[in-house]
Amino acid sequence: MTVSNDVSLPDDYPEDHPLHGRLNLNRFIFCAGCLIGTAITAITSCLVERGLTPKDYAIVSGIGCTGRSSGCFKAPAFHATHGRAIPFASGLKLANPDLEVFVLSGDGDLFAIGGNHFIHACRRNIEINVLCNNNGIYGMTGGQCAPTTSIGDFTSTSPYGNIEPPFNLVSLAAAAGASYVARWPGYDVLRLKGSIMAAMDNPGFSFIEVLAPCFTQYGRKNNLGDAVKMLEWLRKQVVIEKNCPPHDAEYSHKNGRIVCGEFVNSPREGFTQKIKQLRETAQKKR
Ligand SMILES: Cc1ncc(C[n+]2csc(CCOP(=O)(O)OP(=O)(O)O)c2C)c(N)n1
Ligand code: SF4
Ligand SMILES: [Mg+2]
Fold first, then answer.
1. Domains of the chain in sequence order
2. Torsion angles phi and psi, residue 28, rounded to 5
């Protein structure tokens, strides 16, 4: 499998693409078969189906392969610094609470360098939608161990097998206070889109983990084959459950079992709403 760096396609290619007006198709620089593109098109088609135009929304990403996704949106889209997509998105939402704000970033970006921002955004319940493209590795920088790498996995920084237990992102988000939490395999576009719609309906912090194997780095180091073989490998492990408590949502490539579904949907007042109320109360007292 080769990594395509071809960014020489003309802007109008292909003209008949249904999302042509909303996407910079010449910026899809991902390896052929990588599911990052699926998350981008799922978000975009949900925004289109909601009748939202680029003046109504903003997209933020951090650094990494998934971080490059911001360039794919024909919209106000921001490629923030490493680990800082959530504070950047929080600032946008605070400045303009009417904006629908999405973060799409990688597991390393959001949960290693950006981990602290993630837990505090959950705790505040700020009204942004965060999608993590979880490939269990640092894809872009050469396949280093991530906070989501399973025990025993080989990476460029764990050549004898990883000994650090991974975060279970669903359990982490729920414990930190996120009011919407779901996990889906990236190939299950219909469920993913349904979940993105539910995230937009939630008046608070929404988190969706998208399982998206990196065959170029993770697959190669663990002898898992090409893009199609890795999708089959993932499909055998995915178990979709209804009403599973978030802390029982197993995430283990080692045990070959990853529980997917919607785990938290408990709307409560969001952060910018609370700020608005504080401002109104203060104005009345003047
Ligand atoms: C401050 C800083 N430290 C380290 C890096 C190098 N770096 C760039 S992307 C990345 C990890 C990305 O991993 P992930 O978010 O999982 O993205 P993926 O490529 O897997 O989508 C790292 C360590 C950086 N750009 N900036
Ligand atoms: S995450 Fe892996 S498969 Fe996807 S574009 Fe990056 S290196 Fe390629
Ligand atoms: Mg990653």
1. 34-285 (3.40.50.970)
2. -80, 85
Predicted TM-score (pTM) of the model is 0.95
What is the rounded average pLDDT for all residues in the chain?
94
Residue 12's pLDDT band (cuts 50, 70, 90): low
Look at residue 11 in the predicted model and tell me its pLDDT. Answer: 55
Q: Which residues line ligand 1 (CB under 6 A)?
A: 63-66, 82, 106-109, 133, 135, 137-141, 146
CA of 140 to the centre of ligand 1 (A): 7
Which residue do the tokens 């904006």 mark?
99
**123 CB contacts (<8 Å, ≥6 apart)?**
176, 177
Calculate how far, in angstroms, residue 74's C-alpha sits from the geometric centre of ligand 1.
24
| Helical axes 85-95 vs 115-124, angle rounded to 10° | 30
Query: What is the tens place of the pLDDT at every residue in 24-53?
Result: 988 999 999 999 999 999 999 999 999 999
